[in-house]
Design goal:
This protein has 474 residues and is mainly β. It has 3 domains: 23-149, Agglutinin, subunit A; 151-276, Bulb-type lectin domain (Agglutinin, subunit A, Orthogonal Prism), CATH 2.90.10.10; 280-417 and 461-469, Hepatocyte Growth Factor. Helix content is 11%, strand content 39%. The chain has helices at 2-23, 352-361, 424-443; strands at 27-28, 31-33, 42-47, 53-60, 64-71, 76-80, 92-96, 100-104, 108-112, 119-122, 128-132, 141-145, 153-155, 166-168, 171-175, 179-186, 189-197, 213-217, 221-225, 233-236, 248-252, 258-263, 268-273, 289-292, 296-299, 316-317, 328-334, 336-337, 347-348, 367-371, 376-380, 386-389, 395-403, 447-451, 454-463, 466-473. The protein is globular and about 75 Å long.
Length: 474
């Protein structure tokens, strides 16, 4: 009797465990969850059949929340929903009513799959799927899956198409007609800073036969294809032609670099780095900084002490309207060039002064770099990021700076953010400002002149490679 009773208890426990296990393998309509305040890192709702990946709430910096798929062994996110800022609190709710919806009772819907399905499952390859079953179907349809909306990571055997992008902050990876490109966003303009063009050694890209796509191979490379035949390009990793048993992924890092890793069972091993020189990264030292290979970072103005990215922006700022031509100072710096200049447009000019004048006349130009040897003039129509320090004094930079601190020289009377300045009050203000400015300049005994309608005041700052020119155009 006791043995029978014990068997019944064991059977009941096993059945209970199976039900718990089954409940974590799929989510059905009516599912709802809120963040659990007792959980400090990750709140799981769903696992794949092998237990390698999990879907749930990820806590970020204590108070922020992300909807993510994690690699369980490393607690590394491999997919994150593209949501706006969401707080880890009881007012946040995740529901599945055919669509997955992340909302907050105070701020409304933050993210939704905008789909219609019957259940959510997590596949062994980390692909989160919404599946729909119709009567008579031999299998489910897939109205939505995370593999179609990657965040900053591409997983082994996941197709990366021209309609997708990997995104990390201001950086993105996209496919072109015959290349893979890395881009950085400046004032809503994408600028390419790394490009890998298809070699077309084993197969050619044929016009009219569809766009290219990319996929990580188990043989240690990122392949580019136009169809399921031979790849039109192979970007090899360190493990090229040495198959590994662990998972491989490609990730766009927060510094804009593209790297590949594989899981060896206990750690992620670096397998590929797109940009091997730190100074060639778009903004390695931060804005208004110079990165010299082997010698670290320094601020462009030679005055501000550099400790970390962001230090150089304490005294300089370019925020505001790019259309403004007033209230800026000029920094000239020799021995500098632009990173990834091979991918930038340039114009051949006869002299440094011609290159500078071209930028000076263009209100949207933030700066220019001129090569006295080649005569190439590179114009910057975006915020000044990190420059590369070189030993060649023939390479000279010309940069417009808008002072960020109120009351400093160079601020002037400017209308930022695209707001027009007109009317009598503005006219009186400009007149008063002009009288005050003239008095101040005379007091400081500055040398004044007229250069093409622009009044310039030149001040030698005691450096052969640094000069500040305060300008204000009418």
């Amino acid at each position: 009797m006791r043995a029978t009773h014990l068997c019944f208890i064991v059977a009941a426990l096993l059945l209970s465990l199976l039900r718990v296990r089954a409940s974590t393998l799929e989510l059905v309509k009516g599912f709802a969850a809120t963040p659990d305040s007792s959980i400090s890192s990750f709140q799981s709702f769903l696992v794949d059949p092998n237990g390698n990946f999990s879907f749930g709430f990820l806590r970020i910096q204590q108070s922020q929340l992300a909807l993510a798929v994690l690699h369980v062994a490393s607690s590394e996110p491999v997919w994150v929903a593209n949501t706006s800022t969401t707080h880890w609190d009881d007012s946040t709710t995740l529901i599945f009513n055919g669509s997955v919806i992340l909302s907050n009772s105070k701020t409304g819907t933050h993210w939704s799959t905008r789909s219609e399905g019957n259940r959510i499952v997590l596949r062994n390859n980390s692909n989160l799927q919404i599946q729909k079953f119709e009567e008579g179907d031999t299998g489910p349809s897939i109205p939505w899956q995370s593999f179609d909306f990657p965040s900053n990571t591409l997983i082994e055997n996941q197709n990366f198409t021209v309609n997708m992008s990997l995104v990390n902050g201001a950086f993105s990876m996209k496919l072109g007609g015959n290349f893979i490109g890395l881009y950085t966003n400046f004032i809503n303009q994408n600028h390419i800073y790394w490009k890998h063009t298809a070699m077309e050694a084993k197969a050619s890209i044929i016009q009219g036969e569809g766009p290219i796509y990319a996929r990580i191979s188990q043989n240690g490379f990122l392949g580019t294809y136009q169809n399921e035949k031979a790849p039109v390009d192979v970007l090899p990793f360190n493990t090229f032609q040495r198959p590994i048993s662990g998972l491989s992924l490609v990730r766009l890092e927060s510094d804009g670099n593209l790297k590949s890793y594989y899981w060896n069972g206990s750690a992620w091993i670096l397998d590929f780095t797109a940009i091997t020189e730190d100074c060639e990264l778009p903004n390695f030292c931060g804005q208004f900084a110079v990165c010299t290979p082997g010698n670290g970072c320094q601020c462009l103005n030679n005055r501000t002490e550099y400790h970390r990215p962001g230090d150089c922006t304490r005294h300089e700022s370019q925020q505001g309207s790019t259309k403004s031509c007033t209230g800026y100072s000029i920094i000239r710096k020799t021995g500098v060039e632009l990173p990834y200049k091979e991918l930038m447009e340039f114009e051949k000019m006869g002299s440094l002064s011609e290159c500078e004048s071209d930028c000076e006349r263009n209100c949207s130009c933030r700066g220019a770099v001129y090569n006295n040897g080649s005569g190439y003039c590179y114009r910057l129509d975006y915020e000044i990021g990190t420059l590369v320090g070189v030993g060649d004094e023939e390479k000279i930079g010309y940069f417009k700076m808008v002072r960020g601190e109120e009351g400093e020289e160079g601020v002037g009377f400017c209308c930022w953010g695209g707001v027009g300045c007109g009317g009598g009050v503005v006219g009186i203000g400009m007149a008063v400002f002009g009288v005050w400015r003239l008095w101040r300049r005379r007091r400081e005994k500055m040398v004044m002149g007229n250069d093409g309608g622009c009044i310039g005041a030149y001040r030698d700052l005691g450096s052969a490679s640094f000069r500040s020119i305060e300008m204000c155009k009418s």
